[in-house]
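Standup notes
- HV: blocked on the assembly model, inputs below
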Amino acid sequence: MFSSTEENYLKAIFNLSVRTKNPVSTNAISQRMNTSAASVTDMLKRLAEKDLINYVKYKGVTLTSTGRKTATMLVRKHRLWEVFLVEQLNFAWDEVHEMAEQLEHIQSEELVNRLDRYLGYPKFDPHGDPIPDANGQFTYRQQVILSELEVGEEAIVVGVKEHSPEFLQFLDRLHLQLGAQVMIQEHFDYDGTMRLKIFPEGEQLVSNKVGQNIYVQKKEK
Amino acid sequence: MFSSTEENYLKAIFNLSVRTKNPVSTNAISQRMNTSAASVTDMLKRLAEKDLINYVKYKGVTLTSTGRKTATMLVRKHRLWEVFLVEQLNFAWDEVHEMAEQLEHIQSEELVNRLDRYLGYPKFDPHGDPIPDANGQFTYRQQVILSELEVGEEAIVVGVKEHSPEFLQFLDRLHLQLGAQVMIQEHFDYDGTMRLKIFPEGEQLVSNKVGQNIYVQKKEK
DNA sequence: GGATTTTTTTAGACTTATCTAAATTTTAAT
DNA sequence: ATTAAAATTTAGATAAGTCTAAAAAAATCC
């Protein structure tokens, strides 16, 4: 249907506009994709021609409903393949991104739906990101940034904001994988470092940068 | 490492030369790939430049050891993915070719080796074709063409020579799937039609064309 | 064994996706 | 409200992979 390149642009636009509904700029896309702004402009014209985006020269782009649907299905495929790689083939959560980046371009709706069923219709991928269902619906979840917790609060790690292998491996070292139960023991105003209790045993100092990149779900007290 | 297109050419050359060791002609490749002879010539130059083939103008091509190794690994990936699709995702044997055609280009040696282990190191794919191991070694098997059997001989269906969905679906209808046990009851010289007993119960007339496209393993008497 | 047919290669063109450099538009600043 | 800076687009080139039509080489046929 669409080339891998076109699909990658759609995904980039989707991810850049998922938070804010504002149009995405040419430069933002070129940075995220490591291409020149000129290449992006060329591609935007093609995508607009195919009715995947709304493009106004010099004003940025938004996805059309077809474009958003296509991007959502790419995200679905990417995340389902990540679940497969981690849960079935026992890859670590920091190893799967590149492979999923290729697998997401495999063309077969039947395949992705069967994979979904095979995996038990998972709602979240190995990094805690929500997996859209066959209709494109995401599961929402009450979550906050770890560093926003107050001293004494308990929470469970449910996701990460950063996905670099370095960060994920560091979290492994800190035993802060998904599902980890933590309690804030101390908060240092000097630089935002926190002292965490990690259940059932263990204690760690985590930097503000780490705390800013972890999503947690507060525990009822 | 190599583009999907380059890989497809290597696979075509491999398959065209796997029986005979003779050089493969430009026309043979263009027919198999549904491209013009001119396109093939262009690509052969590129593949020769990359030391994947030995190319002599007007004389056809053979694979270098690098080329053969690359093609073998593609066949390995293709067939392992077919096993996954059929055994894990419950696709029928006539539905998996196109998907495997895409999946075979996923770049990750670790992935294919883990998939191999996950599937239990299968030696044959859902069509009975041998799957090369991580070293590129194929498993050989004593097999003959069904129509070469004599009246009274018993055998087990172990593979197919033709892979079209039409043929495979027809075999399903005849209950001549892999593993089926058959005995030749009659052989009509008129057009080569055979009357088969299919164990445990069942009897079918099969045309010569069908019989020519099925591999069987003779049963000791 | 020379003429004809078939096969293969070359020449020139097109598409997709990319780039750099130059031109244009928008934004920000004084 | 100009002007300077930043962002974006256009122009022109390149590489991969494809095509058709024409030229060249190889194979085949009396």
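- HV (later): unblocked. Chain B is about 40% helix and 15% strand. Residues 25-27, 37-38, 40-42, 57-58 of chain B lie near DNA strand C (CB under 10 Å from a C1').
- Next: hand off to the docking folks.
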